[in-house]
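Q: Structure tokens for this one, please.
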Amino acid sequence: MDEAFAAGRSFIQRQARLLEQRIFSTCFDGAPGSGVVDALRGYQNQDGGFGHGLEPDKRCPASLPIDVEVALQAMVAAKVSDPSMLNMAGDFLGAAAEAAGAGGAVPLALPVIEAYPRAQHWSDWTYQPGLNPTAGLVGLLLRLGVEHPWVEQGAAYCWRRLDAGQLPEDGHTLSEVLVFLENARERERADLAAEGVAGGLPTASFYNPDPDFTEYGLTPLHLAPQGSSRWRRLFAEDNLQGHLDRLARDQQADGGWPISWEPPSDAARLEWRGIETLRALRTLSSYGRLAPAP
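A: Here is the predicted structure, written as tokens:
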């Protein structure tokens, strides 16, 4: 086993949440994905949404679309789905979209977060429905094979926005759009739209094409996180390799990876480091940079 991978495994075992430990075990140790679903149950509320700080930057128990997205990402990583859990989540998203009144879109969060500790960047801008997170949510639900009325409503909203020809100008939203396009049923249409997204990335805010970046932002490895990613072709191979070099260098002495923003608490910082360590191990392994097994 690669020493860097072993150190990352140790960090997750020592510091990460149960959820990340379960995902790690499923991805690398052959554990059943049902363990990931079991860990997610504690975060799901009666309204079908997820909360309780599943996304660690706001410590709010109420259901929020961003927490639903994190739950879907976990299931995709573990290659598992739970129809009942997913249908309940669809019901929550449908209700959130109806309340938002924006043609099927949902916001990242709701004002309820203001009653709880949260990172500074979680403020009123997150209450606006839009492609972030609607596009990502729809894409993940399509990936998981979910058939729910809101999926069609959300997809229709995304296509209307994309067909209007005005791409978002920040990296986070473009990332969400690529998740949608990766899983959209209209493949030729989606691949053509992805070329437009790639053209907008170099000037997008919160996007770092330079492997030597020092500020917070997304990189090509957030958009093509696996070596087999459909969108790997959107990036120059030497640029991808430079970012892989950087990601490998960023591993800390304790075996984990750092974060580049200020979370709301020490607990949130450790939770995020577990998330980022799992992401780094999965990405570096999939690109052949780490050997997870002898």
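A few notes: The chain has two domains: 1-31+212-294, 54-207. Residues 1-31+212-294 form one domain.
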